Amino acid sequence: MTSLTINGKEYQVDATADIPLLWVIREQCGLTGTKFGCGIAQCGACTVHLDGQPVRSCITPAISAEGKNITTIEGMAPDKNTLHIVQQAWIEEQTPQCGYCQSGQIMSAVALLNENPSPSDEEIDAAMSGNICRCGMYGRIKSAIKRASATLQSSTSL
Amino acid sequence: MKKWTRRAFIGAGVLAGGTLVIGIAIRPGNRSSKVAGLIASEGETVMNIWLKIAPDNTVTAIIPHAEMGQGVHTALAMMLADEMDADWSKVKFQEAPADKEYANYTLLKGFIAGNATFPKFIEETIDGVFLTAVKSLNFQITGGSASVRFTGQQAMRIAGAAAKSMLMQAAADTWKVPVEELTAQNSIISHPGSKLIATFAELAPAAAKVNIPTRPKLKSIEEFTLMGTSPPRFDIPAKVTGEAQFGLDVQVPGMKYATIKAAPVFGSKVKSVDTIVSSSQQGVKKIVNLGDAVAVIADGYWQAKITLDALPIEFETTENSGLNQEKIMDRYSKAMDTDLAEGNLDIHFKDGDAATALEQAAILVEAEYQLPFLAHATMEPMNCTAWVRDGKCEVWCGSQNPLGVKAAAAELLEIDIDQVTVHNQLLGGGFGRRGETDVIKQAILIAKEVDYPVKLIWSREEDTQHDVYREATISRMKAGLDQSGIPIAYAHQFIFKHHPPEAADIPYSIPNQLIQYSSPAFHVPWGNWRSVDHSTHGFLTESFIDEMAHAAKQDPLTYRKNLTKDNSRFQRVLDMVYEKSNWGAPLPANWGRGIAIAQSFGSIVAEVAEVEVGIDGKVKVHRVVCAVDPGFAIHPNGFIAQMESGIIYGLAAAMTGEITIENGAVVQSNFHNYPVTRMDEAPKIETHIINSGNPPGGAGEPSTPVIAPAVTNAIFDATGIRIRQLPISKNDLRASIRPTT
Ligand code: FES
Ligand code: FES
Which residues make Cβ contacts (< 8 Å) with residue B523, sequence separation at least 6? Predict the structure, then answer.
């Protein structure tokens, strides 16, 4: 048994040597917000944070996450009634289409804004081009990131 | 249950009396106990199968379509609520259960009732795929960009209006006042004279007893209060929190996981496999040989996958095992030659005498185009959860055709259709792929081998290599122009005709046309790919008309305008895209602009692409201006999202999309070798809607067919190189090889 900390909660999981974190999160911990898209670090659908850093959970061995803080989309909202600024921006821009890629998109966007609260278009492209959206909502994802960035600026300047 | 026949459809359609197919959604028997049991909980009154009113005055629209992010649940509920004058904040939706009562009979009857405003292709369709569907009645599909056009117009609006009229009648009867003196607003009916008011819910029981009106009056566009606005979509909040449940996310107690490997060569079979589970295969429950595929069931997907990857499987060699892409294209080409020589071509359209006119032409334009196979690559890989037990079957999946899933399950297991339950989930992309039942059948066959539920998950590799593909094609086109560049003849020989049947038509007024096709044999499974035949013909027609314009030494946009003079909708769309794209304004060196326009699924879309081709040949699409006449956009923001989506989807295919066959099997396997458009490659898209007041057109598909030609026409403008073979990445566009002008 391996112990993982996901969204601040302890989980006892069976992590055989090579099982990627993605499948443990989804199947053993029942957190299905993190998606499977490609399995080879090509699409970003499986993005989670390890100690705040975005990683592709489909190629991250579960055992390597032991002792780290794992955050998934389910852990983004600060509490039950409040969404994360980025999630809120996503709703305001009516960003998701099918929605399947959006957990990964939001995880990448949050990581970007944590590093760089006011990214330029090019910086957004660079940070987000690892996340595929087959519904092609790139324009809206970008607008939502900018909206979230603006909200961050105004809340920190208060 | 009463069986609908074509006669019954027409019979029911006649009450429309030639007007907008009224009565289609409102059929006797709507309030059958069966339907009531399916959708109404206690205390609710079923008005008809498209809506229900709860005691708390909420109105629930029952939507017979799957949500793929096209916002169909919101748009259709809006159509119903608007006609009903319901309080939008109290409107909910529910996806209809997979049941015969919800087969697309609305849509089908819409076709058959012969509304004069329906385009010709729909009439033809009656005897095609849709009639077949009527007969089997196992058709509840979300596709063909049809949800708003048919279900919305002919079920939701009429149901809403009928409900309102029944509520009004109930109020008039109760209060003993003339119905004309009543008003309805925000789910309340009032009689201003006597200040009597009642909520919909209060009136619902009485209303359910009044006669269902056969011709409820629909609102005119000026009377719309919801349609044409963009309230937040119902499906979005759950999609930012991770709560949205897709097929892949289903959890059933006791469930195990499976993954599968099908014979790489389509049509081949498993020759040998060892299905005995060894103790070293940790967590593995069972290895199942399905004959044409092998599946592993395990405690988790990962255990199943690594076991399957390591499993030696031998597949049979077939006549197709030696086929490669070149041979396939060669076969197509030879079949075209032979069919032409032997007079075996089927005629798609003929007018005048194209052969003679071509001989007399002052300028002859000729081109051959080639298009590749394309996979769908939905973001969510194929999957399905099934549980087969006690003569029953339960299925969890995200399907564009849940009723088809139900029928397929019943047929496969030889059980009554009522023994099958389908729990439809959100779809992580459909694009036509999720109208198929291949994966569902596999999941059922696997689950049949065990007594617990099994979730079958395809790897991305399986998804790419066992799709149903947009076909690869060759097209030969000829046009004859007179001295002044005006076309006097048009001939097109293509291969494969699926649907919609009008896809190869051209919108341009050209006399002497001959459009013909043949259907060579091929072993790669075909499937509906976003916009279907329009995805090929959009590129062919709009590339070739561009070639014609250049041969005529005329501006390509003006050329199109001159040839569509009698089509006012085309004229407006072209004017709009001209203005919004700054057509004709100077561009930097190595930049170009391209235009393309097409009508599909009832919407007319023109796109202008602005493209830069670097001296190294690298193509960057900077901007796409899209002008569209969808008749009327019910939810403009959602409609614009669909245009954006269709453009990016078509762009990915145009730029790099290519499935090739080697040794009878698909070469590509994942996003590294079947690349799709990413954010840094995505153009800025500007969409401009023209609400012309025509019947609503589709949203999900019509922006896809024109993006490839808009881009390749722009590349021609930038480089002088005409791209006749997709994807664009196959073409050498380096500055050193460009023609000098
Ligand atoms: S599933 Fe991990 S990057 Fe695609
Ligand atoms: S919203 Fe469908 S893949 Fe991004």
Answer: B266, B267, B320, B323, B664
pLDDT over 50 (residue B40): no
pLDDT 10s digits, A119-129? 999 999 999 99
pLDDT in tens, B156-197: 887 788 889 888 998 999 999 999 999 999 999 999 999 999
Closest partner residue to A98 (CB to CB) among B68, B377, B679 is B68
| Rounded-to-10 torsion of CA B258, B450, B399, B665 | 50
- B249: contact with A, CB 8 A cutoff: yes
Place of tokens 């619902």: B204
Question: Does some domain include residue A80?
Answer: no
H or E element in which residue A104 lies: helix A102-115
Give dist(CA B564, CA B570) in Å, integer: 7
Question: Which of A75, A100, A129 corresponds to the end of one domain?
Answer: A75
Q: Enter the pTM of the model.
A: 0.91
Confidence of residue B62 (pLDDT cuts 50, 70, 90): confident
Q: Which domains does chain B have, with CATH numbers?
A: 6-227 (3.30.365.10), 247-265+269-316+382-457 (3.30.365.10), 329-372+469-737 (3.30.365.10)
Which residues 651-690 in chain B show a CB within 8 A of chain A?
651-652, 670-672, 676-682, 684-685
Query: Which residues of chain A lie closer than 8 angstroms to B242, CB-CB?
Result: 31-34, 72-74, 76, 103
Instruction: State whether ipTM is beyond 0.95.
Output: yes
Q: For residue A27, what is the domain's CATH number?
A: 3.10.20.30
Evaluate the CA torsion angle A76, A79, A83, A86 in order and state its sign.
Answer: negative
